[in-house]
Amino acid sequence: MNYESSLEELKGIGEKTKVIFEKAGIRSIGDLLSYYPRTYKRYEPISDTAQAKEGEMLAVYGQLEKAPVVQYVKRLQIVSAAVCDDAGTISVRWYNMPYLRNTLKKGAHYVFFGRVAAKGRRLILEQPAVFQLEQYQSMLCELQPVYALAKGLTNAMITKAVRQALERVDLSKEYLSEAIRKKYQLAEYDYALEEIHFPKDDHHQMLARKRLVFDEFFIFTLALRQFKERREASPNHFHITETPLTEQVIQKLPYRLTKAQLRVWKEIERDMTGGRIMARLIQGDVGSGKTIVAFLAMIFAAANGLQSSLMVPTEVLARQHFDALTEFLCIQELPFTAVLLTGFMTAKEKREAYEKIASGAADMVIGTHALIQEKVVYRELGLVITDEQHRFGVRQREMLGEKGREPHTLVMSATPIPRTLAVILYGDLEISVIDELPANRIPIKNCVVNTSYRKTAYQFIEKEVRAGHQAYIICPMVEESEQIEAEDVISYTEKVRAALPEDICVKYLHGKMKPKEKNDIMESFLGNRIQVLVSTTVVEVGVNVPNATVMMIENAERFGLAQLHQLRGRVGRGDSQSYCIMMSASDSSKTKQRLEILNQSNDGFFIAREDLKLRGPGDILGVRQSGLMEFKLGDIFTDARLLQDACEAAEELLQEDPRLELPQHMILRKKLQYYMSNELKKLNL
Hints:
Blueprint: H1 15-23, H2 29-33, E1 39-42, E2 57-64, E3 69-73, E4 76-85, E5 88-95, H3 100-103, E6 109-119, E7 122-131, H4 133-139, E8 143-146, H5 155-168, H6 178-183, H7 189-197, H8 202-232, H9 244-252, H10 259-272, E9 279-284, H11 290-303, E10 307-311, H12 315-331, E11 338-341, H13 347-359, E12 364-367, E13 381-387, H14 394-401, E14 408-413, H15 419-425, E15 430-434, E16 445-450, H16 454-466, E17 470-474, H17 482-499, E18 506-509, H18 515-526, E19 532-535, E20 548-553, H19 561-568, E21 579-584, H20 589-600, H21 604-614, H22 640-656, H23 666-681
Parallel strand pairs: 5-7, 9-14, 9-15, 10-12, 10-13, 11-12, 13-14, 16-21, 17-19, 17-20, 18-19, 20-21
Antiparallel strand pairs: 1-8, 2-4, 2-6, 3-4, 4-5, 6-7
Helix pairs in contact: 7-8, 8-22, 8-23, 9-11, 10-11, 19-21
């Protein structure tokens, strides 16, 4: 058995179970072993019911007084029971687990382990796990892995499969040299993989994580360096010359470009007319005006007889960019044609778009991942632009580039990353920074409050809606499973609906909705048919909704500062004053210090630098920069030192063996190929 082996080689996994695993992106043994726990559960020593305190975990060994009772409340099935021990009685409650009514027997003794919640004056043990006494005692003081789940997939199913895979896959073949492991104090790979899933204690888990995060950054850096090497060897095949047209377009704009925008535009113009193919990143804070610079580059390409494409991560954003570009071309009276290409278009619409692209009738193409499907053939693609780069992998960007004769590449990102890290993460690209906001931007007003402010926040949202505006509310992350995350958004939406008048339309959005559902919700929000959108961080890379003036973020302490800044950037895009309400349920001084940085500044790059200073190696399973570069374990802020070490090690290795041709690097070469193939799996290609 090896990394490419099918899951069906494991005992207990047949065709139906395999499909369930695939919902979580686990398609092979390699996927399974790299499906790391998102946290670990520690089982507490058994206490009695008198020790129950709100918000704390409790393990109690007691007897069921009566058989469990099932109640139906809207979409929920609530199972209730009472547990008694020598110290007293405590209520227990489960949601959407009706089978427990038949599993748990009246008069029987069990260990119940869960978090204590308060309902009025009563304390309730919510959603507790249930064990036999001997079973629970055997798990005390151990770290138990907790995995992210998909519908139908349980933690026990993953745990059992991982244990089997670890026993049957040969992990003894180490691909990092002893010299590298010694220099950077790294554990061996087989030890790391065993301990990340089933750690003996916190120390072993930290050693395992360090090695695997190093691996992620190391392989990523090697992939980038290979990509960069091919880029640097590519001459500029296109005869592109400067044209007065772009200067005329700039002069006709209803506003003046900032000095930063003009500087970056000149860098792009110089690249595209130079001797080598352009490979450039534009880093610019939310609202800094990256899109107009991209439009100028597309016009520049069209003026030289070349096609350009702009790939963005969502259907709604693609359509919005397409509408904006079409309107822009019309106002500027430019003789160029733009077409839209997305997965939701009808077969006829796609066929017409393919024909225009292939014939050259389309000068500019805007779309989603549909742009890199095999059916898309360009007549003369000279410029490729990807928006919100951290949503696209290295291989996807390369695939889009392969659609033309090694076209110029422009990457745009609003994610604030300190330059020291950006140089590593975008190692195949030259970096331009738009570090200046347009003069007419109205700064967002921020406030950090505790949960007692929630009622006032709802009243403020109602006031803004009555003034004709809209609001986002970001739900707290719910960690038990992806399915529960969706249910939590739904139940939270009900709370918001109850708090606001009935004529205010409140809808929800989460990552597990079908693409068409998500698209319809965002279209409705864009058209102000929805006034309040309750969402997970799926809106982080969203659309431009100038009418949205309020961003309320629940449990703000659970997010990294850079991600909070990204979320805040969903508002403040129109002419009206906008507000960001960060609600924190934490009283810790460290949390308050972090959030105060956001409260005092709207500068994304300053925030990113401060985030980097505040977060250290101790934040092992702490705040995540969700979505950022999409490393499985690594966090570019918490693990900045490891990122730099991995980059240094990769550079040294490539100096010794640029093409990884030496026999001792055979395993590493295969691992790199496996990584690149996994990049394709992200798009199901």
